[in-house]
Amino acid sequence: MVKMKYLIAAFLIVVVAISAALLFFPSEERKVKRRFALFSDYVSKDSKENTITMASKIKRITALFSEHCNFMISDHSLSGNYTREDISGMALRGRAYFSTLDLKFYDLKVSLPEKDLARVNVTARLSGQSVDGERVDETRELMCLLKKVEKNWLFSSLEVIEVLRK
């Protein structure tokens, strides 16, 4: 009976140690996925959001991007190379258009082809309601490149992948 207590205690110690190691020393893939979770949080908006919260989220959104980020969107005039200031302005205008907004990322496939480069294929779903009451629900496949700059993964390229439709 005493041996069983020691086995259970040892097992729990090992589980706690492994959990702590994963929590405090996440893998690079996990760090990249965390950037997408932050991006989702910062873009999302509810109808009761005040100006201070909006400004804070805009600032946080721009901090997720490298100094220059390339957007490749074939069906829009948004394609181009943008600075953080440009992205800040686009985020402000985009969020102002919506009374509610929700961005979710699904099926993240992260590859690390080089030391400080991450390539992520992901499905993004943007839904919400415009200030005019129009409902928006868009789903797109994205290919994103993130570069590691001073220990932070920053978005450096976002491309909308065209998916065949019936």
Summarize it.
40% of the residues lie in helices and 41% in strands.
Write up what this structure looks like.
The chain has 166 residues and is of the alpha+beta class. The chain has one domain: Nuclear Transport Factor 2, Chain: A. Helix content is 40%, strand content 41%. It has four helices and six strands, in the order H-H-H-E-E-H-E-E-E-E. It has helices spanning 2-24, 28-43, 51-63, 84-97, and strands at residues 65-72, 80-83, 98-114, 117-130, 135-149, 152-161. Helix 2 runs antiparallel to helix 3 (51-63) and helix 3 runs antiparallel to helix 4. The longest helix is centred in the N-terminal third of the chain and has 23 residues, at 2-24. The radius of gyration is 20 Å and the shape is globular. The model has no long low-confidence stretch (mean pLDDT 87).
Percentage of β-strand residues: 35-45%
Total domain modules: 1
Number of strands: 6
- Silhouette: globular
Helix content: 25-40%
Mean pLDDT over the full residue set: 87
Low-confidence blocks of residues: none
Core attributes:
alpha+beta, 166 residues, 6-stranded mixed beta sheet
Question: What's the topology here?
Answer:
Blueprint: H1 2-24, H2 28-43, H3 51-63, E1 65-72, E2 80-83, H4 84-97, E3 98-114, E4 117-130, E5 135-149, E6 152-161
Parallel strand pairs: 1-6
Antiparallel strand pairs: 1-2, 3-4, 4-5, 5-6
